[in-house]
Amino acid sequence: MSQPFGHLDDRGEARMVDVTAKDPTRREATAAATVRCGPHVVAALRDGTVPKGDVLAVARVAGVAAAKRTPDLLPLAHVIGVHGVAVDLEVTDDGVEVRATVRAVDRTGVEMEALTAAAVAALAVVDMVKGLDRTTSIADVRLLAKSGGRSGEWRREGT
To answer: In CATH, what number is assigned to the domain containing residue 103?
Structure first.
């Protein structure tokens, strides 16, 4: 018989998993997102001429703030002590690549915090450039790697 899904109680109703019996361990997760936009937006990003200001700085701060607010957005996410967040953005020929890494020492992982940071940083890019290109879009929000906890290390192939 398979192990029951931890977010469901005996009646099949959603609940927060109780992690109080777990020992805190070092946890880390990295996630990414892709923002696709037109060549004229890419040029404005590279030249620093986006009318709303420094897009990458705003997106970086938005991603950090989002990682810390994950339990406010996802009702079954645990409140954890986020100890480090790095959000890196790279302008490419097709748009912006976002990469967010979150670190903590706690009883549960930080995958959702990393995914939230990457997604919200990407949303901030869209918000900053939407006046230049309404077709700007977010694609492929994904977990790249995680470490720590009972399940140990995991890395997406090709990253």
So the answer is: 3.30.70.640
Active-site position among 72, 127, 133, 140 = 127
Residue pLDDT, tens place only, 33-60: 999 999 999 999 999 999 999 999 999 9
Backbone phi, then psi, for 74, in 5-degree steps?
Answer: -115, 110
Q: Catalytic: 127?
A: yes
Q: Alpha-carbon distance 93 to 45, whole Å?
A: 11
The residue segments making up the domain with residue 93 are 31-148
Output the CA–CA distances (angstroms, integers) from residue 99 to 32, 121, 137, 153, in the order listed.
Answer: 4, 9, 16, 18
Give domain status of residue 65, yes or no: yes
